[in-house]
Amino acid sequence: MGAFHANDIDYDYLFKVVLIGDSGVGKSNLLLRFSENEFNLESKSNIRVEHAICSIVVDDKIIKGQMWDTAGKERYRAITRAYYRGAVGALIVYDITRSITFENVQRWLKELRDQTDQNIVIMLVGNKMDQADLRSVQTEDAKTFAERENINLFMETSALNTLNVNKAFTKVLTQIYHVVSKKKDDNHHYHQTVEPKGEKINVGGRKDVEITRENDFAMASRMYLLENGSTNEPPRLSSVDNFTIWKNRMIGFLNFVDSKLVETIKEGRHTPLMERSRWSYEDKQKVALDDKAMHILGVSLPDDIYRIVMYCESAKEMWDILIVLFEGTGDKEGETEKLWSG
Fold it and tell me: Which Pfam families does the record associate with it (predicted)?
């Protein structure tokens, strides 16, 4: 079945899926065809990550997929790596007319498995079937490789003429759902699955650290304003304008997290915390940042979004990504209020 836009509907599961592979293999157009049923002949190599949100229905459950298109060129690899974390599915794409892109699948596969959970669902995708007369990678060779490397799924596609595009994405999302369902049946917690209807989220897969979604971000907001001399109630983060205000207070808010919020969370949660560090733009040096203090920045967002934030190496990158994600999710009626207000 085809996908439908997910911003205007509720959902039962939210899965993050990444597209990886060499530059020029057609990742962007595969995603564009699946999400918008369009094809861009002028498509150029990405220099940043783009994403689309679509949904399918499996077993009467609405499965919402966040599909991320990662840059393929070597000089952009540093950007790409940050986005592997939190992914539960991946499409490794090669161009059937360029054998070098197939040879490089091995490197992409190693990088993917080094950065993600062992249960990640992987599909090998041979794209540009519309140019089959120029084929340099044989179907059987690709199938043999997939079997040897224990890659779950294999398919050949054409973003230009739509061949197998919907089928590929649908198979990946469906397989992820089946993996998650089986783990639930076995009473295991699949920590990278997002279940937005729950009242609590699990941080980084650790059962000993649970943070209530509803109120912690509001607590941080109020403490920050009070510490900075404000006696008024802080603005409810219910509009893009208010979000922009907070974006512009990045340094002040993060310094506040460093100095005040860590102790507050420790006192409230009584759990051991891992130390992390980030670059301080104000002090021009690496500073320690408690793991859970980073969590607070994304505690009112869906799990996979704040995990991306949590793993970023610098405060500026962390905040920039959060902004992109916020603006990219759409703003259906009440959604922003739900995510950002206390």
Answer: Ras (PF00071)
Which three-class secondary structure state does DSSP give residue 50? Answer: strand
Domain boundaries, the chain: 4-185, 201-340
Q: CATH assignment of 4-185, given 3.40.50.300, 1.20.58.410, 3.10.150.10, 1.10.580.10? A: 3.40.50.300
* Per-residue tens of pLDDT for the chain, all 342 residues: 445 554 445 778 888 899 999 989 999 899 989 988 888 887 666 544 577 888 899 998 888 888 888 755 544 555 556 678 788 999 999 999 999 999 999 999 999 998 888 889 999 999 999 999 999 999 999 999 999 999 989 999 999 999 999 999 999 999 999 988 887 666 444 444 444 432 222 223 323 223 332 333 444 444 444 445 444 444 443 344 444 554 455 455 455 444 543 444 344 344 333 444 444 445 555 544 444 444 444 333 344 444 433 433 344 444 444 544 444 444 444 443 443 333
* CB contact at 8 A, 293 and 265: yes
Other CB atoms within 10 A of residue 78 CB: 10
Contacts 24+ apart (CB under 8 A), 72-81: 72/20, 72/21, 72/22, 72/23, 72/24, 72/25, 72/27, 72/45, 72/46, 73/23, 73/45, 76/46, 76/47, 79/47, 79/48, 79/49, 80/20, 80/49, 81/111, 81/115
22 burial level (CB within 10 Å; 0-12, 13-18, 19+):
buried
- Estimate to the nearest angstrom the gap between the alpha carbon of 172 and the chain centroid: 15
Q: Provide the CB-side half-sphere exposure for 56 (13 A, CA).
A: 23
What is d(CA 78, CA 71) in angstroms, rounded to the nearest whole number? 10
Count of CB atoms situated within 10 Å of the CB of 100: 11
